[in-house]
Amino acid sequence: MKKLVTLLLVVGFVAGSAFVAMAVAQDKGPAVIKLEAKKMGKTVITFPHADHQTRTDCITCHHKGTDDPAKMKCSSCHGVDKAAPNLKKAYHDKKKSPCVTCHKAEKGKSKAPQKCKDCHKK
Ligand code: HEC
Ligand code: HEC
Ligand code: HEC
Ligand code: HEC
After folding, report:
1. What average pLDDT score do residues 82-107 get?
2. Smallest CA separation from ligand 4 atom 32, residue
3. Atom of ligand 1 nearest to the CA of 38
4. How far is the CA of 88 from the centre of ligand 1 (A)?
5. Which residue's alpha carbon is nearest to atom 37 within ligand 3?
6. Would you give the DSSP letter of residue 110?
7. Looking at the predicted structure, is the pLDDT value of residue 18 above 90?
8. Distance from the alpha carbon of residue 5 to the mean position of ligand 1, in angstroms
9. Burial tier of 117 (Cβ tally within 10 Å: 0-12, 13-18, 19+)
């Protein structure tokens, strides 16, 4: 009997954790995100977020993890936390930015933006 209770407790715990993990994973954020670049003449980057979720894993961009949705804005660390490169580098570094590295690899294969004005639109 004692063993059965323990087993039920374990099963309950595992199921509970899985449920929490699912609930967290379900916050996929907005389908389209508009990011305003103030230093670039207030241009607006229309980022098709949901479309990108079909192209790669969350972690490619949200490299600090997806367990806390409140800490997933790039701008909550980049440009704030001194340990993080500035926001411009996070989005544009030729070798490290997930955006630029993937778009470069896509050159000639898709409409992935290559030039400044492909993203920074008035
Ligand atoms: C793949 C899309 C993309 C391309 C291509 C791109 N940018 Fe950006 N840029 C962004 C995003 C996204 C931000 C972040 C906007 C924000 O959240 O403040 C940004 C921010 C910036 C910022 C600093 C933030 C601000 O408020 O202005 C500068 C400066 C900038 N870009 C310049 C450039 C220049 C110059 C080029 C071309 C060499 C370029 N960008 C190409 C997407 C892009
Ligand atoms: C190609 C890059 C990329 C991928 C892949 C991606 N995201 Fe995002 N996500 C972003 C960017 C960029 C933002 C806007 C960041 C900002 O506002 O500074 C964002 C914003 C979010 C936000 C809103 C954060 C807030 O506080 O406003 C959530 C939630 C989120 N993403 C969840 C996810 C999940 C879950 C996945 C995987 C299923 C995912 N994202 C995949 C780039 C990506
Ligand atoms: C919770 C804080 C935090 C968030 C959110 C965050 N970053 Fe970072 N990022 C950092 C820190 C700190 C570093 C410095 C290296 C490290 O600790 O990983 C970094 C490094 C980077 C680098 C350089 C990678 C390298 O190899 O040096 C890029 C590019 C980058 N981040 C892009 C992004 C993008 C794009 C987003 C949003 C989709 C984002 N980051 C969200 C904290 C964050
Ligand atoms: C895994 C590859 C990959 C990554 C990572 C990626 N992109 Fe893209 N992106 C693409 C592809 C492919 C397209 C072109 C889709 C099409 O052909 O319509 C695209 C298109 C776009 C567009 C143009 C949308 C339009 O219809 O005009 C913007 C803006 C954009 N990406 C911004 C970003 C930003 C900002 C990041 C980093 C936070 C990023 N992308 C990361 C692959 C990627």
Report:
1. 97
2. 47
3. 26
4. 6
5. 74
6. S
7. no
8. 57
9. exposed
The 3-class SS string of 8-45 reads HHHHHHHHHHHHHHHHHHCCCCCCCEEEEEHHHCCEEE
Rounded Cα gap, residues 114 and 107, in angstroms: 8
Q: What SS3 state is found at 121?
A: strand
In this predicted structure, what is the pLDDT of residue 3?
59
Mean pLDDT calculated for residue range 84-89 = 96
The CATH number given to 31-119 is 3.90.10.10
Tokens encoding 39: 């230093």
Provide residues with CB under 6 Å of ligand 2: 27-29, 33, 47, 49, 52-53, 56, 58, 60-62, 66, 69, 72-75, 98
